[in-house]
C-alpha cells in the first residue's frame, strides 16, 4: 500500500514540475513583456492563472495515475493512452518558453493547436478505461479552449515587429 501511495503522489505531482519550471524561468517576462501586449477584455487576470493551473495539473496528474493503475502499470496497453498524455504534457510545458521566453506568438499558437489535438486524443483514449479519469480532464479541455482562443487573439492583435521597422 505504501508503494501505491508513492505512485499516486508521483503521478499527481508530475504535471506541476514542468508548470512550475515554466513559470520560474519566464516569471520576469510576464510583468515586463506580457503586460504590454494587447489582450481581449475577456482575458483572465494574471492572479487566476496559478490557481487554475494548480487545480488543472492536480486533476490531470491524478487522472493519469488512475489510467496507469487500471492498465496495470507500464504495460503494452498503456503505451497509447499514456503516450498521448505524455506528449500533450510536453507540449503544455513547451508553451510558456515559446510564448514568454522566445516571445514567439506564432510558435506558441502552433504548439497549443497541437496540444489541443493531443489532449482531445488523450481523453478519447481514456474514455473506455476510466470514466473518472476522463471527467477529471474535462476542466483542462475547457481551460485549453479558452487559452487557445486567447493565444489566437493575442497573436492576431500583436503583429510581429520586423527588424528595423519602428512604429
From TrEMBL:
It is a multi-pass membrane protein. Gene3D superfamilies: TspO/MBR protein (1.20.1260.100). It comes from the Eukaryota. Keywords: Membrane, Transmembrane, Transmembrane helix. It is found in: Membrane. Its main location: membrane. The chain crosses the membrane at residues 6-26, 47-66, 78-95, 107-129, 135-155. GO terms for cellular component: mitochondrial outer membrane. Belongs to the TspO/BZRP family. This is TSPO protein. The gene is Tspo_1.
